[in-house]
Amino acid sequence: MERTFAIIKPDAVERNISGKIISKIEEAGFKIVGMKKIHLSKSQAEGFYYVHKERPFFNDLCTFMSRSPVIVMVLEKENAIAAWRTLMGATNPANAEPGTIRKEFAKNIEENSSHGSDAPETAAFEIPYFFSALELV
Ligand code: GDP
């Protein structure tokens, strides 16, 4: 069993489609071992995305991620990291496969409805950024 970190991003929470995304997660066989709704500050978003700090869209991304609440989750499944990235689809919804979350729900390359860890080391940073061990059940 592997754990990964997921976010339902502000664009999706704002449009009241969190439930549709959570349904897809459950239908795909993930166990939700942690979940909460939070409103990130700009500096908390910057800390989360620090690996992207040199990228041209960093400021816009952190402004977007802190403009309204998000739902953060820890998902468990065999090969959860790769499986969640497959279910999300490509970063740019124009390139995402049919049936993926980003194809169905994303507004554009930035407001793309969901986040997922891209490697075990990333998940090992991202999960404890938001959750204590006691919150994962
Ligand atoms: P991910 O792993 O698929 O989320 O993609 P990345 O790690 O490359 O980028 C992190 C997040 O930054 C993406 O999910 C988007 O929200 C945003 N992003 C990525 N590329 C771009 C871009 O070219 N322009 C803008 N405005 N945002 C981007």
Description:
With 137 residues, the protein is α+β, with helices and mostly antiparallel strands. It is 40% helix and 19% strand. The site of guanosine-5'-diphosphate has 9 residues, from helix 4.
Structure summary:
It contains 7 helices and 4 strands; from the N terminus they run βααβααβααβα. It is of the alpha+beta class and 137 residues long.
Strand content: 15-25%
Rg, alpha carbons: 14 Å
Major beta-sheet overview:
4 strands, antiparallel
Number of strands: 4
Cα(first) to Cα(last) distance is: 14 Å
Strand order of the largest sheet: 2-3-1-4
Average pLDDT confidence is 98
Tags for this entry?
137 residues, alpha+beta, 4-stranded antiparallel beta sheet, 7 helices, 4 strands, 40% helix, globular, binds guanosine-5'-diphosphate
Q: Helix and strand layout, with pairings?
A:
Blueprint: E1 2-8, H1 10-14, H2 18-27, E2 31-38, H3 42-48, H4 58-65, E3 70-77, H5 80-88, H6 101-105, E4 114-116, H7 120-130
Antiparallel strand pairs: 1-3, 1-4, 2-3
Helix pairs in contact: 3-4
